[in-house]
Amino acid sequence: MHRVLVIDDEPQIVRALVINLRARKYAVDAGHDGATALRLAAERRPDVIILDLGLPDMDGVEVIRGIRGWTRVPILVLSARQTSDEKVEALDAGADDYVTKPFGMDELLARLRAAVRRTEPATSGGAEPGIVEAEAFTVDLAAKKVNRAGRDIRLTPTEWHLLEVLVRNTGRLVSQRQLLQEVWGPSYGTETNYLRVYMAQLRRKLENDPSHPRHFITEPGMGYRFET
Prior knowledge:
Number of helices: 8
Distance between the termini: 38 Å
CATH superfamily of the largest domain: Response regulator
Oligomer: single chain
Largest sheet: 5 strands, parallel
């Protein structure tokens, strides 16, 4: 049973989410402010967090940063903020997905399932490379670890999933649509700003010169390619 933490200052939304999630056999904890979010995230160790940004005691982006200081748990933002800059700010802080209010319950649950899948080990019937050595870093696909200059690099679940898809297709162009659907789920295909944000984060963490990437190559208008 997967555990979900729901944080929203609107009681009716919390109530609807708790009812729907429990009906689908999720264990659910809930709260209405940022302090509760930080406390329950540490105490209950959820598998996924659904987080509103407009909280009464602190901005949800600050909650994301606080949680990201110690865990890679997927964070699904649920917010009425709809501008591109606000979405990018939340994603850049460490959120894994963004759903705007008003929302459809079926879509939210689909995105939640996708977030859960991203935390589970990948399975494949064919032979897969175990360790991929790039010029600047090493990727251990089995252990889900990245090592650079002798130290492990912490990636969020979404950063890892994006890296994994690219590494498993080393040298091949992976289209924007394929990346979005593999990492975020089948309902995605046009949210290219997500890719820009996360590719920038991977470059900052793994490239020697992020402004002139050696490993994460952009094919303008088409997709991305990983080179060792």
